[in-house]
Amino acid sequence: MSLKDLTRLPRRRALAALGSSLLLPSTLKAGAAERRFAPIREEDLLVGFGHTSPITDGGWSYAHNQGVEAMKRAYPAVKTLFVESVPYSADATRIFRQFVAEGAQMVISTSNYGDFIKDVADRAPNVAFMECDGHTVSNNLGWYYITHWYASYVIGIAAARLSKTGKLGYVASFPVPSVYASANAVLLGARSVNPNATMRVISINSWFDPQAATEAGAALVDSGCDFLCGIMDDPGYLRVAEKRGVWAAMWNTDMREFGPNAYVSSVTLDFADFYIQQVGARIRGEWGPEGRFLTLGKGVDRDRWGQNVPEAVQKEADAARDRMLAGWSPFQGPIYDSDGKLRVPPGHVMTDAEMYGWSWQVQGVSGLG
């Protein structure tokens, strides 16, 4: 079966497919990579990319593809191939195997495929593998992810100042750690200035379903939410916010064109420098498997503020951002979960690894888990 044939496979997303790829302390490793691949000429390198959605989605896969295009400009002789909408099933394994069969010396999945990619990596020890939102480091497989919770906290501060009701609405995909971390961070930021702020979550069981995201956004507004946010790959609920006269913050890219009056900001992603660095390291024989977080200001950040966000709100939120860039973390105990149980004791500062594996909703969040 060719890559062209595989792109015609139906796209399926199943939480069960994530299985053992959920965060396990024994497999989450970060640090210096062991160099174990020989140098390769730029013109001889073939890199395969597996995307979780269409690269024209305007969101997650689009952001990754922008990084790929930047890498190709930096290394114009490098050859690439890609498959969009890689399903979360055994079909993903076949796609990654096909990359190897076609001669790829480096394979990068732009989402978490767990054992589906690890099994292929184990059988292709001479190929370098990278998995976004992965959790395992092996002899030839590493992971990378963005610490989006800091930018989300900044946006949460603005949300609390802009909301008249203190009721925030969140359009979620699945109850997975990246979504918990995103929703929790927004509300914690909001509660830093309005302790009574709350967040209602609606999950649509997809990362890319514009109709479902639109319907969820409308339902949240109908329930009294006057600030919408989420983790979608499309601007569905931003259009709702524009039409209904409420505020909205987005994810992945600048989407203000779809709701210029409602747009507050976005958690924006930039993988360009990372992909350039990774491919360059592979060419020079310096690449090794490791876990890597792309941090605030270096791969993830808040977008430019929307045209209607008051300057005073911008300055207050950005003051927190400046403190984070200087080393301060707002994710400090005490933090309670939605059942009132103390989860983060006083004095403890949550690590990025802890937030990467967040699996409970903070006090004030409802509907996620």
UniProtKB/TrEMBL annotation:
One Pfam family of this chain: Bmp
Residues in the signal sequence: 1-32
ABC transporter substrate-binding protein PnrA-like domain location: 51-296
Record has Transferase as a keyword: no
UniProtKB keywords: Signal
Superkingdom classification of source: Bacteria
Record-given protein name: BMP family ABC transporter substrate-binding protein
Species the sequence originates in: Gluconobacter japonicus
